[in-house]
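Structure tokens please, single chain.
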Amino acid sequence: MTFSIAARCARTGRIAVAVASSSPAVAARCAHVRAGVGAVLSQNITDPRLGPRGLDLMALGATAADAAAILRETAPHAEYRQLAVIDAAGRVAGWSGTQCLGIHAIAEGDAAIAAGNLLANADVPAAMLRAFAASDGEDLGARMVGAMRAGLHAGGEAGPVRSAGLLMADDVPWPVADLRVDWHDAPIDELARLWDLWAPQLAAYVTRARDPRGAPAYGVPGER
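Here you go.
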């Protein structure tokens, strides 16, 4: 029901996840990031508890492989889950339980991991990583959206895709991007539109939080 990617930008240190599904509001359940720690995608028959647990493990010093292994051994009904993990150093790990739905696959790359289940074909995660690697040097958000588009063009999910999301962590405690398309006929295109809208404003909102005195104008009606 899902295809996704988690990645780290070597230039900025930002970490992001992007995910799409035929079910509604996929990012609300599957996408988890934490600044300075890493990211976890918990999908297939989703257990949203695994994301925070994996992040807590990495915050205590576990690598992505350590966290994935611990979750596989200790999570209830792990055979129904699919997991993709990246740590702050860009190391990745993942697994698919024996009860993972339909065609499923995981592809690991350089500071990136892609995964999916109920896929149109098993090459979808690898196609996402190829697109991500080919866009090296671009902004991380644009690279994530491009990878999701590549996954869709490679076949995507076997059913129609209806929701998508992008979550990104930087050097502040909150996500610097948290974009969600919870139900749409073309959610990845809509996610791309949202990223194009948000990207030029991202840094300004961080500045407003850190020091409003140095923040740019809001540009809204009624501002003085």
